[in-house]
């Protein structure tokens, strides 16, 4: 079965225009993404390890790793 080419940006834009609930959730996730990006920059500036940040935030190191990979 061959892969179908998909323009993700167009698909998301179309869905945002036609589905208000999707638009709301999408916009909220972008805010979260930007916040996480700021967090990653700050912790790297402080030369913190994933384990340091995990201890400081009460999360597991694996959670911090997943956040960093999203960036």
From TrEMBL:
Entry protein name: Helix-turn-helix transcriptional regulator
Top-level taxon in the UniProt lineage: Bacteria
Gene3D superfamilies: lambda repressor-like DNA-binding domains (1.10.260.40)
InterPro entries, per the entry: Cro/C1-type_HTH, Lambda_DNA-bd_dom_sf
SUPFAM superfamilies: lambda repressor-like DNA-binding domains
């Amino acid at each position: 079965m061959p892969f179908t080419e998909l323009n993700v940006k167009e698909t998301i834009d179309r869905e945002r225009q036609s589905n208000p609930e999707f638009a709301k959730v999408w916009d909220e996730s972008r805010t979260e993404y930007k916040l996480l990006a700021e967090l990653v920059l700050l912790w790297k500036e402080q030369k913190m390890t994933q384990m340091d940040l995990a201890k400081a935030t009460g999360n597991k190191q694996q959670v911090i790793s997943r956040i960093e990979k999203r960036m």
